[in-house]
Design a protein that fits this description.
Elements: E1 10-17, H1 21-35, E2 41-48, H2 55-65, E3 69-74, H3 80-90, E4 95-98, H4 110-117, E5 123-127, H5 135-152, E6 164-167, H6 168-174, H7 186-192, E7 197-201, H8 217-235, H9 239-268, H10 277-304, E8 314-318
Length: 323
């Protein structure tokens, strides 16, 4: 069937699943109808992220009716980043599309994403221009997206949209950073790596079943993760650039203060207890030395660093292993 096509003609659809039993059958029906129309062979990989309902059993039934649908299941809930990482490893296609399983992402957008990717971009990120979510989610999301655009240097309206289309090499390069909740910054990581990133407005539907798996804490975590990924991606291999700069700034400031105090000492004699600024100067010099030491140690560790992805244990599989 379609799974026998060579990888250069294959589209892989990766869908993380966590307790989405009711959504899977209607989602699969829509996907099958759309994938029958696209000019690529296709596979759909469900990543069951430790669901406690009947999600995996539904996927097994889908596989029996259509071999294009396959899945792997985690022993427990590892969260979305681990599910995406597993999906990227399982995918056999040249193009990898990610989407959520809650029916809010529309499979009808797949042909438009494929058309937008070729030949100009390496990653197309969906933009939920008209969102069907409460203000408690949309307003913080807008603020988060603006800050992320400013920090990352790439102008996107919606970093959180689950509907994205990647060339295979982009997904492979992003794999080492798929842990925690850093998956939201994949477009930024791809941009920093030199890939061409675009954005396409997509349809967003109201949630039909279940409840959202993300709460208000996600906003705070998002900003902390933004700091993490900015440092890890931009300065992982050159920590001295940031720590050395901070050390130089602190050292020069402290040295200047100490020099000024020394000048006062030689021109005015005893200055004891008259210039507490001396303590600040000494402190800045010490802090500067510490920053330099940290930068040197970081460079030593970076030279020995080998990226290792997080290991998750698979308990079940539907369909063949990737070739």
């Amino acid at each position: 069937m379609t799974t026998s096509a060579p990888p250069s003609l294959l589209l892989s659809v990766v869908i993380p699943v966590y307790n989405e039993e009711e959504s899977l059958v209607p989602l699969a029906d829509k996907l099958a109808a759309v994938l029958d129309r696209v000019p690529y062979a296709a596979e759909v990989i469900f990543i069951d992220d430790g669901s406690t309902d009947g999600s995996f059993e539904v996927i097994e039934s889908l596989h029996r009716h259509d071999p294009r649908f396959r899945a792997v299941g985690f022993r427990r809930n590892y969260r979305k980043a681990a599910a995406l990482a597993a999906g990227f490893r399982e995918a056999r296609g040249e193009y990898i599309l990610t989407m959520d399983a809650d029916l809010q992402d529309d499979p009808e957008e797949i042909p438009r994403l494929l058309e937008a990717l070729e030949p100009e971009f390496d990653l197309i990120s969906g933009w939920k221009k008209k969102r069907h979510d409460p203000l408690s989610k949309t307003l913080p999301s807008r603020f988060f997206n603006r800050v992320t655009s400013l920090v990352s240097g790439i102008r996107l309206h919606d970093f959180n949209c689950g509907l994205k289309l990647y060339r295979r090499e982009v997904a492979e390069d992003c794999l080492p950073y798929l842990y925690g909740e850093l998956y939201r910054f994949l477009p930024a990581m791809a941009h920093w790596a030199g890939y061409r990133v675009g954005e396409l407005p997509v349809t967003h539907h109201p949630r039909r079943f279940g409840v959202s798996k993300f709460g208000a804490k996600r906003l705070l975590n998002g900003f902390l993760d933004l700091l993490t990924i900015t440092f890890v991606v931009r300065f992982l291999t050159m920590p001295m650039h940031i720590f050395g700069s901070l050390g130089l700034l602190a050292g020069l400031g402290g040295g200047g203060i100490c020099g000024y105090i020394a000048y006062l000492r030689f021109t005015h004699g005893n200055i004891q207890n008259h210039h507490p600024l001396l303590m600040l100067g000494v402190l800045l010099v010490i802090v500067g030395i510490q920053f330099f030491s940290t930068g040197l140690l970081g460079d030593m560790l970076a030279s020995l660093h080998q990226r290792q992805s997080r290991t998750v244990r698979l308990s079940r599989r539907v369909g063949p292993e990737p070739g």
